[in-house]
Amino acid sequence: MSWHTYMLFIGASLVLCLVPGPDMLFLLGRPIAQGRAAGLCAAFGINLGAYIHLLAAVTGLSALVLASATVFTVVKFAGAAYLVYLGWGALRAKGGFALQESSGKSTLRHVFWQGFLSDVLNPKVALFYTALLPQFTSTHDPRPVAHLFELGVIGNTVGISTSVAYVFLASRMTQALRRSKTLSAGLTKAMGALFIGLGAKLATEKL
């Protein structure tokens, strides 16, 4: 595989990482509401979910899901329901998710697995791997599976690097905001409404 192909794939992965979506919203919400540690846990949880999608795509499972209307619909509605669940939890929260830095192991573990589920239950991520990866291989490739997995690891490395940068930027910009109970509560409610809106959009749109 040529150096040009690798660079083209890295560029495509970076552009897709910058496109707003449920994962980005969840990722930005953690450092805003709970601090940098929670944001990093969310980033690594989302990245682990991306590896599940990568493995599914390489083994053909993603193509199977996308080919089956019933299975695809189930995955889509599960993802939509999870987004609405997160949004409803944010709307019900009193005074924000947390007004102090979240450092408890149980809290950070919970955020990690929330990020993981946010990514795993997002059918658009499955579509990304199934549609994009084959564009960078050929029928004459002697090791197609190995090269697909290699590209996926590169894409996920771009993803985690971008996510960590987002977390540090969001944490730095919102430290003052989180000291205000009124602003923290307002940010939490706004994020909750956005999650519910994204869930409703995912449930109704055709992918």
| Number of alpha- plus pi-helical segments | 9
Q: What is the succession of H and E elements?
A: HHHHHHHHH
- What is the average of the pLDDT values? 77
Q: Approximately how much beta-strand content do the residues carry?
A: under 5%
Low-confidence stretches: 96-102
In total, the number of strands is 0
How much helix, percentage-wise, in residues? over 70%
Distance between the termini: 30 Å
Rg measurement, Å: 18 Å
**SS-derived structural category:** mainly alpha
- Global morphology: globular
The domain count comes to 1
Main pleated-sheet profile: none
Labels describing this entry:
207 residues; mainly alpha; 0% strand
Give a verbal description of the structure.
With 207 residues, this protein is mainly α. It has one domain (3-7, 23-204). 81% of the residues lie in helices and 0% in strands. It has helices at residues 3-18, 22-34, 36-58, 61-67, 69-92, 105-120, 123-132, 144-178, 181-204. Helix 1 packs parallel to helix 8, helix 2 packs parallel to helix 8 and helix 3 (36-58) runs antiparallel to helix 8 (144-178). The chain starts with a helix and ends with a helix. Mean pLDDT is 77; it is low at 96-102.
